[in-house]
Amino acid sequence: MGPLPAAARVYIACAVLAAAVCAVPLARSAPGVPWGALVLLAGVCAVCERLPRRPLTLPVLLAAAVLLPPAAAGLAAVPGGLAGRVGRRPVAVRRLWHAAQLSLATGAASYVYGLGGPRPVTAPAFPRALGPALAAALVLALVLAVLEGGVLVTAEGRSPRTAWRDALPGALVPPLAQGPTGLLVAVVWHSPYGPPAALLVLLPMALSSWVLDRCRRERAAHRATVRALVQAVDLKDAYTRGHSERVGRASVLIARELGMRGERLEALRFAGTLHDVGKIGVPTRVLRKNGPLTPEERRLIELHPEYGHEMVRGIGFLDEARDAILHHHERLDGTGYPYGLTGHQIPEAARVVAVADAFDAMTSTRSYSRARPVPAALAELHRCAGSHFDPRMVAALTRALDRYGWHPAVPASRNVPLDQCPARTAAGGGA
């Protein structure tokens, strides 16, 4: 990062000066300041700021806002800001800015909590203190968001409307969840069990945050795996570029109409996106052949579902998607491949992907044919329902498209022989 603009330097300097001015009352009332609680909370805040994604910082700051007067609460946030993780330069300026930001927000939250006068932080008083604690949490989050938006305006040149429009909506959600936790920490702090028990209240939140972070990382790894496989198919057979993603999207539309949710919906997305991954195992000369395919070459093409199934057999998270990859070219009347399954012998996920695949093949513009209008493609699917496609899946796709519509596909980038066309028959689906 280059030198900060002058406006950003002035903005940060003003924030630091404001935080320092807010701490002045501590010097006047030093004997009455709960220094022990201040130091302990400051240390805990510093530790929390070093954790990945900082899941406990907000509840600790809220506990400080409830337990300490505004000046002391603001000071308790400073070590956390100075100790926080910084990924870009200038590091010192960013740490100083973050410390001032946390200090001002926590001090403001403490002030709002105390507006109605002193409130005993005890278990019986918990219901009456919950409203002020939530208000303090919202103020803390809003001050953080407003200050952050100011930095985006002065340092990155964003418009105020864009900076605060992006920051404010997301800032309102965490306080509603973590505000009661901060109050609970404060209540237990003043209980006979003392500060150690109060800090234990944060342990379940830390564990749940760790689990959620692991889940997010795992899901990101799953998506990266799927993207890598799709890119490998695109490199080998460029004319299908974009087809896989669209089939995944259409599969999700059908699955939602059928009432599928959660992990099963994600499995259908993966199934649609990876349905042609087995093309990696088909010789490139066959995929890119200019001219009609021989019977032997046709048999090689029809092996791609089995190749795909073998490729993803060991990828545990794909689950139901593996069956869809293997059977998405089966037909209800038994004329499909690779095994000629009929009716409900074909897994439900495969029947979903088969309809999505055929629909996208018919509505995509290729070098060898123009895209059919969506109504014409749906009419063809309905004509073949019961013989090639499951009527439930066709009806579900029709309902979904009535509700959400469908965006036209981008034309393919190279010529492909008609003999290799994924929609060479009216409802032939992908090759």
UniProtKB/TrEMBL annotation:
InterPro entries: Cyclic_di-GMP/3'3'-cGAMP_PDE, HD/PDEase_dom, HD_domain, HD_GYP_dom, HDIG_dom. Keywords: Membrane, Transmembrane, Transmembrane helix. Pfam families: HD_5. It comes from the Bacteria. Residues 218-413 form the HD-GYP domain. Residues 240-362 form the HD domain. The chain crosses the membrane at residues 60-84, 96-113, 133-155, 167-189, 195-212. The keyword Ribosomal protein does not apply. Signal peptide: none annotated. PANTHER family: CYCLIC DI-GMP PHOSPHODIESTERASE TM_0186-RELATED (PTHR45228), LIPOPROTEIN (PTHR45228:SF4). This is Metal-dependent phosphohydrolase.
